[in-house]
C-alpha cells in the first residue's frame, strides 16, 4: 500500500502576521472614524489627551482579543492536522476535542465521524478475515483428513471410502460456493458484472430456488412452504442473478431457523411491482444489528457459517434491477425478507 504523506499546511507566522495587520487596519479605521466624530461633535466635551489614551487602549484591547482568539484557532488546527496524520497511519480511535461551534467545529465533527466510520470498517474487515479463514479452514481440514484416511486405509473398506468421498465432495462444493460468492460480490462492487437482461418469468426462478432448499429443509427437520400464484407479469432482469437473490435469502433463512420451525414464501403483484416475502420464525435480529445485516462482511453471530456477504449480494443485485430489498425482524420472533421488482411494462 502506498504510504500517504501529509504536510503541515498551517504556517503559524503567516497567519499571525495576517491577523496583526488586519487588527491594526481595523484599529486605524476605528481611530480615524472616532477622530472625525471628535472633530465635529466632541471637541467641546472630550479633551485631546483623553481621546488619545482611549484610542491606544482600544487598539491594545482589539489586538489582545484577536491574538487570544487566533491562538485558540491555531491550537485547534494543529490538533486537526495531528489527528489527520494519526488517521493516515491507521490510528482510527483518534478523536478531536471540539472547542468551537463554527466552521472549525464542523470540521472537527466531520473528521471525528470519518475516523469512527473507518474504525468500524476496519473492525468489519478484521472480523471478515477471521471468519473467512475459519470458514475455509474447516472444509479443507475435512477434505485433507478424509483424503489421508482413504490413502492410508489398507483394508479397502468400501463403506468408509464412500463415506469419505461424500464428505470430500460436499466440502469441496462448499468451498466452491464460498469462492464464487466472493467473486460475485467483488464484480458487483466494481461494476464489472455483465447482465443479460431479458423478459423473465420470476415464478420459474423462485420456484427453482425453493425446490433446491426444500429437501435440505426436510433433512434439517424444518418446513419450507411456498404459496405459488398461477400467473404474474414478467420482469426485465438477469435470470441467473434473480435466482441468486432467492438462493441467498432462502439459505440465510434456513441457517437461522431452528428445527421444527418453518419458512414461508409468498409472492404477489401490486402497484406494478412483484413483491416476494420470505418469512421465518427463527431467532430474529436485534435492533442493534438490523441496520447492519446488509453491510458487506457483517455477521451478527460470528459462530454462524458463511462469509457474511450473502445479503450484501442480494442488495446489490436488487438495486441493479431497480428493485427494493427490505428486512423486517423482531428478536426471538422471526424475520421477513421483502424483495420487490418493477414489472415489465410496454
UniProtKB/TrEMBL annotation:
Protein name per its UniProtKB record: histidine kinase
Membrane-spanning intervals of the chain: 20-39, 51-70
Enzyme class label: transferase
Keyword Membrane in record: yes
Record EC number: 2.7.13.3
Catalytically driven reaction(s): ATP + protein L-histidine = ADP + protein N-phospho-L-histidine
Residue span(s) of domain HAMP: 71-123
Source domain of life: Bacteria
Residue ranges occupied by any Histidine kinase domain in the UniProt entry: 131-345
